[in-house]
UniProtKB/TrEMBL annotation:
<protein>
    <submittedName>
        <fullName>Fused MFS/spermidine synthase</fullName>
    </submittedName>
</protein>
<dbReference type="InterPro" id="IPR029063">
    <property type="entry name" value="SAM-dependent_MTases_sf"/>
</dbReference>
<keyword id="KW-0472">Membrane</keyword>
<feature type="transmembrane region" description="Helical">
    <location>
        <begin position="426"/>
        <end position="444"/>
    </location>
</feature>
<keyword id="KW-0620">Polyamine biosynthesis</keyword>
<keyword id="KW-1133">Transmembrane helix</keyword>
<feature type="transmembrane region" description="Helical">
    <location>
        <begin position="293"/>
        <end position="314"/>
    </location>
</feature>
<feature type="transmembrane region" description="Helical">
    <location>
        <begin position="116"/>
        <end position="143"/>
    </location>
</feature>
<feature type="transmembrane region" description="Helical">
    <location>
        <begin position="261"/>
        <end position="281"/>
    </location>
</feature>
<feature type="transmembrane region" description="Helical">
    <location>
        <begin position="403"/>
        <end position="420"/>
    </location>
</feature>
<feature type="transmembrane region" description="Helical">
    <location>
        <begin position="235"/>
        <end position="255"/>
    </location>
</feature>
<feature type="transmembrane region" description="Helical">
    <location>
        <begin position="155"/>
        <end position="175"/>
    </location>
</feature>
<dbReference type="GO" id="GO:0006596">
    <property type="term" value="P:polyamine biosynthetic process"/>
</dbReference>
<keyword id="KW-0812">Transmembrane</keyword>
<feature type="transmembrane region" description="Helical">
    <location>
        <begin position="50"/>
        <end position="70"/>
    </location>
</feature>
<feature type="transmembrane region" description="Helical">
    <location>
        <begin position="380"/>
        <end position="396"/>
    </location>
</feature>
<feature type="transmembrane region" description="Helical">
    <location>
        <begin position="351"/>
        <end position="374"/>
    </location>
</feature>
Length: 743
């Protein structure tokens, strides 16, 4: 810029505050609507983590389209036409206000609900989210043209945008969700969107004014030679953005199914992801980036050694911390390289367009590709390896030398697998060897390809070891998670080894069956005869011959072995894969032997029960879990009212509330008080060691205390009145608060 232009540049703080404030509000709205609509949609799809991941893909697709639109305006249109076109788009988007789900939105029950979910989101918030998505690159492009003295490098505004995203994401579970219902959240978001439109209008006015001033007083600037972007540079940007995006969804899926299936944890990886953008585009980036590059291989050692090779030695919170720390360092290195390679403002929209496109590809890979080519969450370790390849120095070393040692190591490992007749005898030695190799990775910290390949080999053999140890008979992945059937060995009552089968969802056991003829119809784990459900059926034995019983949640089908010949049983199961496993006699025979005529109803339980006749059931059993968590929409006041509408006047509602992280009894106690119901709870712990009889918590509810008196007076278990909690705000379809029941 020449001296005359420089002297006339705007140095006012108000201009920065206007653009930064607009971007801050835009990002806040973007990251409030994501958990808000995730919460609206979760009840329709059983609370599975895949709902959150699919929503993320939708947001990434709209983000890319918004960036593409901003790129088109910034490159192809004059300033005044940009303003006119964007004003029209803003006005059209108002037809979606106030934002809400379409009436009668019902997911398919027999097919993958992903397309339905994306279409529903598009109808509900597609237009406003498109506008919000376009705001960040478009306003930065405008700021680069308004003549401010910082216009030559507007990337600091991206940090302001991500700071808004970070604040919104953290405020949702701790401020908005505990205090404001979904209906009010939707209205507040719509009002915030109108405010954003006004602020965008103010930014457009500043651009228009600067354009008019430039037309009235044209200046001749010095010529700036701006080189065209190389294809290699664009591809480098692409992979640097693709890997963190895929890693984000992979880690979210992994921690939700393999560490702790708690909805609150889903936002932590996204929070770290956004924080990385704030840091790498800040003024401290030049000091932070080398530190992250140095720390990554140091953290990699305990991460691989314990979180992958031997996770059983760690408490879940420490395992989770290692995964999150390794993830944060990986995305900091990738995003730090992106920030370091950011181009001149002439290519600003190209830069953001490629970033958003890569983010969309990463999400689509995890949601649409990985579930069909992998039967577990293998995309997560795969992207860990890819992130290591993107460390600085990848192109400065000779690839043949970098790959030589890992290749020899892989060959040696395959030879061990091929020649060893029984690897189980050498597991301790192999595990120790892998941990030593994890330590060796640090010596390759300056050779990205060697570091990545060596880490990949360790993870490859670790996966094989875990598969060998678990004796997996069957594993398949559906929209609702990874299900596996494993063959294990127990010590029977006579001290002899005995094989049995287990059903797992992620790392949470969902049922087991002994295979010896005299035990094959014995319900086990949470449904054992010494436990609460066995006690309930024994107490009411003799008067339940003709009961109509509904069970929400199937698992391995163990509950079916409480069925009497004249009873009618219906199982409500959201995932067809679970029914397929439970009905396969190669894995479990509970259904085949005990209730071959039981009805199987596929779909979300609340939607399915709505179609049932009122006062149909004598007993309803709530045993629906997504890994370790009961879907929250099955715990609301409206849900309890629905269950009792379908129960006969003397009917019973049995609720399985075993949970490692959440005190679900508080929610049911509050419903009991407000709906004037009677309730008993038993937090069962086996008094003697019986194979596959485990501790479990159950609550039984009824309209009158007299209906529960036989259970309370029996000496079969320690049934107690459900304690009252007066610090609870009632859970409804409009309001739930996970923080309030955290153990």
């Amino acid at each position: 810029m020449n001296k005359t232009a420089e002297s006339r540049s705007d140095r006012s703080l108000s201009l920065i505050l206007l653009f930064a404030g607009t971007l801050f509000i835009s990002a806040t709205l973007m990251f409030v609507v994501q958990p808000m609509f995730g919460k609206l949609l979760l009840p329709l799809l059983g609370g599975t983590p895949a709902v959150w991941n699919t929503c993320m893909v939708f947001y990434q697709i709209l983000l890319f389209l918004g960036y593409l639109y901003a790129h088109y305006l910034g490159v192809k249109q004059e300033k005044h036409r940009q303003i006119l076109i964007h004003t029209v788009v803003l006005l059209i988007s108002f037809i979606a206000l106030p934002v809400a789900l379409p009436e009668g939105a019902t997911p398919p029950t027999e097919s993958n609900p992903t397309p339905w979910l994306i279409w529903t989101l598009f109808i509900a918030i597609g237009l406003p989210f498109f506008v919000v998505s376009a705001t960040a690159p478009l306003l930065q492009k405008w700021f680069a043209q308004v003549g401010h003295h910082t216009s030559h490098d507007p990337y600091f505004l991206y940090a302001a945008s991500n700071a808004g995203s970070l604040l919104a994401l953290l405020s949702y579970p701790f401020i908005l969700e505990p205090n404001i219902g979904l209906a009010e959240q939707r209205l507040l978001w719509s009002a915030g969107y109108v405010l954003l439109a006004v602020l965008i209008g103010a930014c457009a006015f500043m651009l228009w004014r600067s354009h008019q001033q430039a037309m009235a007083n044209p200046l001749v600037d010095d010529e700036i030679d701006i080189a065209n972007l190389k294809l290699s540079t664009k591809l480098h940007w692409l992979v640097l953005a693709f890997v963190p995006s895929s890693l984000l969804l992979g880690l979210t899926n992994f921690i939700s199914t393999d560490i702790a299936s708690v909805p609150l944890l889903w936002i932590i990886p996204l929070t770290l992801y956004l924080l990385s953008f704030v840091l790498v585009f800040s003024k401290w980036a030049d000091k932070i980036h080398p530190l992250m590059v140095s720390l990554q291989p140091i953290v990699l050692l305990p991460f691989i050694a314990y979180s992958f090779i031997n996770p059983a030695v760690l408490p879940y919170w420490l395992d989770l911390t290692l995964h999150l720390l390794a993830f944060f360092l990986a995305v900091m290195v990738c995003h730090g390289e992106l920030a370091r390679m950011r181009p001149h403002t002439h290519h600003l929209t190209d830069f953001y367009l490629i970033m958003s496109f890569a983010g969309m590809l990463g999400g689509m890979f995890n949601t649409f590709v990985a579930p069909f080519i992998f039967d577990a969450v293998y995309e997560y370790p795969l992207m860990i390896v890819a992130a290591l390849m993107l460390r600085p120095g990848f192109f400065s070393q000779k690839w043949t030398l970098q790959a030589a040692f890992p290749a020899l190591l892989l060959l040696a490992g395959l030879t061990v697998y091929a020649l060893a007749d029984n690897l189980a005898h050498y597991l301790d030695s192999i595990g120790a060897g892998l941990i030593l190799l994890a330590g060796l990775t640090y010596s390759f910290r300056k050779r990205p390809l060697s570091l990545a390949l060596l880490s990949g080999i360790i993870l490859f053999f670790t996966s094989g070891l875990h598969s060998l140890l678990s004796n997996t008979l069957y594993q398949e992945r559906s929209f609702f998670g990874v299900f596996s059937v494993r063959e294990s060995v127990l010590t029977d009552e006579n001290g002899r080894p005995e094989k049995y089968h287990e059903l797992f969802h992620g790392t949470t056991k969902h049922g087991a069956q002994r295979l010896v003829p005299e035990k094959v119809t014995t319900p086990l784990t949470y449904y054992s005869r010494p436990g609460p459900m066995g006690q309930l059926f024994k107490v009411f034995d003799g008067q339940n011959d003709h009961w109509v019983i509904g069970s929400i949640g199937l698992g391995a089908g163990a509950m079916a072995c409480y069925a009497e010949p004249q009873q009618h049983w219906s199982f409500y199961e959201i995932d067809p894969l679970v029914i397929k496993i439970a009905q396969n006699p190669d894995y479990f025979t509970y259904l085949q032997r005990c209730a071959p005529d039981a009805d199987m109803v596929v779909g979300d339980a609340r939607l399915s029960l709505t179609d049932e006749a009122d006062q149909k059931f004598d007993l309803l059993i709530l045993d629906a879990f997504s890994s370790d968590s009961v879907p929250t929409h099955l715990l609301t006041r409206e849900a309890i009212q629905l269950y009792f509408a379908k129960l006969k006047p003397n009917g019973l509602l049995a609720f399985h509330i075993t949970n490692r992280h959440l005190a679900l009894k508080k929610v049911l106690a509050d419903h009991t008080r407000h709906l004037q119901l009677a309730a008993l709870i038993q937090e069962f712990k086996p008094q003697q060691s019986i194979p596959l009889v485990v501790a479990t918590d159950w609550v039984v509810l009824a309209r009158k205390e007299a209906l529960l008196r036989p259970l309370q007076q029996s000496r079969l278990g320690n049934w107690q009145k459900l304690p009252l909690y007066f610090d609870m705000k009632p859970w409804t379809d409009d309001f739930t608060n996970i923080i309030g029941i955290w153990k």
